[in-house]
Automatic annotation (TrEMBL):
Species for this entry: Variimorphobacter saccharofermentans
N-terminal signal peptide: 1-25
BIG2 domain residues: 24-95
Keyword field: Signal
Protein name: Ig domain-containing protein
Domain of life: Bacteria
């Protein structure tokens, strides 16, 4: 009996020595597995969960260097930073971009404007390498060149490579009647999107079709992150010409959630439905 008890005590003692090592190994990880940096900026990677010596290396010193975990962006491109500990490798993919420049951002902002007579619909494409915050302001003028009204619209998180649609309302009087204008001028202001926000654009999926005097859209958050603010817009066409616009917020905050939206078809001055033959859906932005 004493031999059995002694054996059990030794066995339990051995387990107590092994268990911490196994748990520790299971939690070893880099604090970042992907990273986006501007040329000249730095970020310190950390390998947590181990006290072993860590060896750092980069796949391309011309793109990014690393010293004791501190990554420095050298030139535009992509590189992989590797941390090696206990013969195991942990990697972080680094993308290096040019530092944000508002003039370059404006040069890479492509705008297509359509004047409806009571406002202007603008379809925009961000061809710049950075996500931007966009503000569009339209000033309306009468025949004598006097300013008679102003309208503004924002895109708080305009992703690089994405397109969006906005509507700049025309001037109206105290009774909310449209005021005729002779000309207009739109100016665009851009700045780099705050790092405080996280984009969910790639996770938002939209399926849409014509319904009964409307366009029905199914909006789904397919990702595993919350999408706090999501705006969906639609541009209506007739004979390939832009004839209307609408937008709404989509309540798809929770991962996996879906919302069904109906966009009413545009109407003319007599409030009759315009017989559109096509439409285009845009996810203007989605972020938290």
């Amino acid at each position: 009996m004493k031999k059995i008890l002694s054996f059990l005590l030794v066995f339990v003692f051995c387990l107590s020595l092994i268990a911490p090592s196994t748990a520790s190994a299971a939690t070893i990880k880099l604090n970042k597995t992907s990273l986006s940096l501007n040329v000249g900026s730095t970020y310190t990677l950390k390998l947590t969960g181990t006290k072993s010596t860590v060896k750092w290396s980069t796949s391309d010193k011309k793109i990014a260097t690393v010293t004791n975990g501190k990554v420095k962006a050298v030139s535009t491109g992509k590189a992989t930073i590797t941390a090696t500990a206990n013969k195991k490798k942990y990697t972080c993919k680094v993308t290096v971009k040019k530092a944000f420049n508002s003039k370059d951002a404006l040069k890479n902002l492509v705008a297509s404007e359509t004047d409806l007579g009571n406002g202007v619909i603008v379809i925009l494409e961000n061809k710049y390498s950075h996500d931007i915050r966009l503000e569009a302001t339209c000033v309306y003028y009468d025949e004598s060149g006097d300013m008679i009204g102003k309208s503004s619209a924002d895109n708080y998180y305009f992703n690089a490579g994405n397109s969006c649609a906005i509507y700049l309302y025309g001037p109206y009087d105290g009774n909310f009647n449209d005021v005729p204008y002779s000309n207009y001028k739109i100016t665009y202001k851009v700045e780099e999107t705050s790092s405080y926000y996280t984009s969910n654009l790639k996770d938002i999926k939209v399926e849409a079709n014509f319904g009964v005097d409307n366009v029905m859209a199914e909006v789904t958050n397919t990702g595993n992150k919350e999408a706090e603010f999501t705006v969906i817009s639609v541009v209506f066409y007739k004979n390939n010409n832009v004839v209307g616009y609408s937008y709404t917020y989509a309540d798809v905050k929770e991962p996996g959630s879906t919302e069904y939206i109906d966009f009413s078809l545009p109407r003319d001055d007599n409030f009759d439905i315009i017989p559109v033959d096509d439409f285009e859906i845009f996810v203007n932005y989605s972020y938290k």
